[in-house]
Amino acid sequence: MPDDWKDKIRCSFCHKKSAEVKKMIAGPGVHICDQCIELCNDILAQERLATSTEPRLPMWESMTEEQILEHLPKIAAVQAQVDDNLRDWVAHLRTRDVSWERIGVSLGMTRQSAWERFRSET
């Protein structure tokens, strides 16, 4: 992994850099930091204690338009990180001579679509 990976990998939830947190857990194209895991644990603990069975509203229902607009770049950055990760996985498969046909089938697209989306332009 390149030396600057800690600057490139960000938490998919809070968008903090890997270097800004104690631990970063990786999933398929996403990452979560120890601080967000702690927050998730707190939320789950509160839910276990709650006796209410009220339906949960989507997060944006309690946000102002400005808060939603401020959140959009974070969502876009996570999407870019996932896209980059997917591109890396496909590139690795190509180094193993896996066909565009098999990659396309795996991603639910045609061979041509996979090639157009992931071919190396170098």
Automatic annotation (TrEMBL):
<keyword id="KW-0862">Zinc</keyword>
<feature type="binding site">
    <location>
        <position position="36"/>
    </location>
    <ligand>
        <name>Zn(2+)</name>
    </ligand>
</feature>
<dbReference type="GO" id="GO:0046983">
    <property type="term" value="F:protein dimerization activity"/>
</dbReference>
<dbReference type="InterPro" id="IPR038366">
    <property type="entry name" value="Znf_CppX_C4_sf"/>
</dbReference>
<feature type="domain" description="ClpX-type ZB">
    <location>
        <begin position="1"/>
        <end position="52"/>
    </location>
</feature>
<keyword id="KW-0143">Chaperone</keyword>
<dbReference type="GO" id="GO:0006457">
    <property type="term" value="P:protein folding"/>
</dbReference>
<dbReference type="InterPro" id="IPR059188">
    <property type="entry name" value="Znf_CLPX-like"/>
</dbReference>
<dbReference type="Pfam" id="PF06689">
    <property type="entry name" value="zf-C4_ClpX"/>
</dbReference>
<protein>
    <recommendedName>
        <fullName>ClpX-type ZB domain-containing protein</fullName>
    </recommendedName>
</protein>
<feature type="binding site">
    <location>
        <position position="11"/>
    </location>
    <ligand>
        <name>Zn(2+)</name>
    </ligand>
</feature>
<keyword id="KW-0479">Metal-binding</keyword>
<comment type="similarity">
    <text>Belongs to the ClpX chaperone family.</text>
</comment>
<dbReference type="GO" id="GO:0008270">
    <property type="term" value="F:zinc ion binding"/>
</dbReference>
<dbReference type="GO" id="GO:0051082">
    <property type="term" value="F:unfolded protein binding"/>
</dbReference>
<feature type="binding site">
    <location>
        <position position="14"/>
    </location>
    <ligand>
        <name>Zn(2+)</name>
    </ligand>
</feature>
<feature type="binding site">
    <location>
        <position position="33"/>
    </location>
    <ligand>
        <name>Zn(2+)</name>
    </ligand>
</feature>
<dbReference type="InterPro" id="IPR010603">
    <property type="entry name" value="Znf_CppX_C4"/>
</dbReference>
